[in-house]
Design brief:
It is a single chain. The protein is an alpha/beta fold. It has 2 domains: about 60 residues, Phospho-2-dehydro-3-deoxyheptonate aldolase, domain 1 (Alpha-Beta Plaits, 2-Layer Sandwich), CATH 3.30.70.1140; about 250 residues, TIM Barrel. It contains 11 helices and 14 strands. An 8-stranded parallel β-sheet has the order 13-12-11-10-9-8-7-14. A hairpin with a 2-residue loop joins strand 2 and strand 3. The chain binds phosphoenolpyruvate and manganese (II) ion (MN). The site of phosphoenolpyruvate (PEP) has 9 residues, from loops.
Length: about 325
């Protein structure tokens, strides 16, 4: 149960808490979006919401059976619009984020940025801290990579998203990027989620590769409850038995998550498939399925990429993808 209160006095909030307590329920109180919201914790199936609606200061009461509250559609029926600079996720536009897996050098990132911008990308991506399966693989240029991201982002006038992997690095990463990415491996790194909840930056929250949709939304709930409501979800493929693809891009998760949450949901067909040939068809499918954007890896010379070259588009492939995307977007009433 979620109880919305309109500018209540402390006494009115106290009365609500006492009544919940009498019903055997615990509660948490949030100040969010200019409202006071009380979420009830515990089994509340037989509690009569009307008994709470009658209390002073209560605006409305919503019964929700889902464990996630603030991110749920019951909490907010209309889509959240998440802004990153001038880019808006969750509206009519389908923003495309593009760039290399990792920042390798100023030249590599600047060239990619110029080419993807010319083809229609509205935001850049690039990893400076790379969470690699092997400790012997390239780990990223770290702060030097962040400096390159910032410089190029300013030069081409496109905002940039980059992954943060460690709660101790959040402050540093925030100095350079426009949006923080939480990667699949860290979706349930609760210390990191709590840290970015205090950051003054929007968050791109990727789905854990073995996470259920509910676990993914609960991860978003951690961020929102902690005070950061600028969250964009990203379906990036889950682990299945299929070895031909790196992951299985779970496109049903896109409309399903959008039904459950008011947050925008985008797709990552690069990590979702692991194969560059599949990136364009799955981008088109994602947008047809209602995705609020895509994030794709592009490298000026994929065979020389230090990471994820096999799933990176060439700038030419990317341009073709963008052309095809505008037709699909128009069919589903969106703009790219
Ligand atoms: C990435 O975007 O570079 C990345 C590592 O993604 P994921 O966390 O989805 O594997
Ligand atoms: Mn990658």
């Amino acid at each position: 149960m979620i109880i919305f209160m309109q500018m209540p006095t402390p006494g009115q909030v106290q009365r609500v808490l006492e009544k919940l307590h009498q019903c055997g329920l615990d509660a948490q109180v949030w100040q969010t979006g200019g409202r006071t919201v009380v979420t009830a914790i515990g089994e509340n199936d037989d509690v009569d919401p009307e008994a709470f609606e009658r209390l002073d200061g209560v605006e409305k009461v919503v019964q929700t059976r889902t464990p996630f509250k603030l991110v749920s559609r019951s909490f907010q029926a209309e889509n959240s619009l998440i802004r990153v600079g001038e880019v808006v996720f969750g509206g009519e536009q389908v923003p495309v984020i593009a760039g290399p897996c990792a920042v390798e050098s100023y030249e590599q990132f600047a060239e990619t940025a110029r080419l993807v911008k010319a083809a229609g990308a509205v935001m850049l991506r690039g990893g400076a801290y790379k969470p690699r399966t092997s400790p012997y693989s390239f780990q990223g240029l770290e702060e030097e990579g962040l400096r390159i991201l910032r410089a190029v982002s300013d030069e081409v006038a496109l905002p940039v998203v980059s992954e943060v992997t460690d709660p101790r690095a959040v402050e540093t990463v925030c100095k350079y990027v426009d949006m923080l990415q939480i990667g699949t491996r860290n979706m349930q790194n609760f210390a990191l989620l709590k840290e970015i909840a205090h950051a003054d930056k929007p968050v791109l929250l990727k789905r854990g590769s073995s996470a259920t949709i509910e676990e993914w939304l609960m991860a978003a709930e951690y961020i929102m409850v902690g005070g950061n409501d600028a969250i964009v979800l990203c379906e990036r493929g889950i682990r299945t038995f299929e070895p031909y693809t790196r992951n299985t891009l779970d496109l049903s998760a896109v409309p399903l998550a959008k039904h459950l949450t008011h947050l925008p949901v985008i797709a990552d067909p690069s990590h979702g498939t692991g194969k560059w040939r599949l990136v364009t068809p799955m981008t088109l499918a994602a947008v047809a399925a209602g995705a609020d954007g895509v994030i794709v890896e592009v490298h000026p010379c994929p065979e020389e990429a230090v990471s994820d070259g096999f799933q990176s588009l060439t700038p030419q492939n990317f341009e073709q993808m963008m052309q095809a995307l505008s037709s699909i977007a128009a069919v589903v009433g969106r703009k790219s």
